[in-house]
Amino acid sequence: MGANLEITEKLQNYINDFGLTLNPVQQEIIDYNNTLGDIKRMQVDPSQCYFLHLIIKISNIKNVLEIGTFTGLSALSILLALPNDGKLIALDKNEETNKVALNFFKKANQDHKIETKIKPALESLNELKNNKFDMVFIDADKMNYKEYYERSLKLVDKGGLIIIDNVLWHGEVVDKDNLDKYTINIREFNSYVSNDKRVEQIIVPLGDGMTVCRIL
Predict the structure, then answer these.
(1) What burial class does residue 209 get, using C-beta atoms within 10 Å of its C-beta: 0-12 exposed, 13-18 middle, 19+ buried?
(2) Structural domain count, the chain
(3) Would residue 68 count as lying in a domain?
(4) Counting C-beta atoms within 10 Å of the first and last residue's C-beta, which end of the chain has fewer, N or C?
(5) Bridge partners of 165?
């Protein structure tokens, strides 16, 4: 029986050497986030940037919604993959990090493809209830994941994608002794999605774990 490899740092570096090359502005965002201390954990892993890029290209995705933007690494990865007439709507409630992200988008000449909404995501989702997207990427406050997921299902047609980050939660989801409210919430969310007959889904062990759902 086959098994997944354990990805050591050395092996990860090898994979990176033979994969896609980051855009210089993507690397600038990573370097900037490394100056922020512990909060840099909110950033997606570069391997997830490559994955999002290829998913968008392969699926001919043009309209994307992102819930949770931080300083813009995942958003820029999406923007770089979108066609010139593609569109990303990015939701985040932090005005300061959004300003940082917008500067990076402009520097990468991708700001014409993006619209940002700065308020609690559930409020923005109410405003977007009549919109349709090819893909939704969820990477925001974990306690609202189920609500974000349910709202996203109404915004994506059959064959579209919903991708959710942090579903392995630093590996804590398998520690039955961990009763932290966030860990419990992620476990319950994963179970909910796994049993949802409206989608077919798989957990991809990139970064902190990503669930990819295809709407049936």
Answers:
(1) buried
(2) 1
(3) yes
(4) N
(5) 210
Say if 104 falls within a structural domain. Answer: yes
Structure tokens at 2: 């086959």
pTM for the structure as a whole: 0.95
Q: Given its phi and psi angles, is residue 72 left (phi above 0), alpha (psi -120 to 50 degrees) or beta?
A: left
pLDDT per residue as tens digits for the range 31-51:
999 999 989 889 999 999 999
In a domain, 75, yes or no: yes
Q: How far apart are CA 32 and CA 27, in angstroms?
A: 9
Q: Is residue 122 part of a domain?
A: yes
> What CATH number is attached to the domain comprising 106?
3.40.50.150
* Cα–Cα distance list, 111 to 25, 55, 77, 146, 175 (Å): 13, 21, 12, 30, 42
Strand runs (DSSP E) across 19-131, as ranges?
A: 63-67, 87-92, 114-118
Angle between helices 24-33 and 73-81 (to 10 degrees): 170
**Distance of alpha carbon 153 from alpha carbon 160, whole angstroms:** 9
Range(s) of the domain holding residue 149: 9-215
